[in-house]
Write a structure and sequence with these properties.
5 helices; 79 residues; flat; mainly alpha
Amino acid sequence: MTTRAASETLDALDRASKCKLPAYTAHDPLLWFRAVDAAFLIYKVVKPELKAAHVVAALPEKQLQAVGHLLADLNADGL
């Protein structure tokens, strides 16, 4: 990895670590995802794997159980 690539990776991780997602709203998931997209835009989180990790980390247990099979597929793809 070049110095520039390493720096860009560290910058991306730094921005992602500062990005705070709103609390999940079970009564309106679409609104929650729109708020999540806005947070990603503000903090310039563009890497799909960082976005996926943030979303998974923010989901409550009930929703994680509902999408567990999808998470297994993501992990198999390296996300």
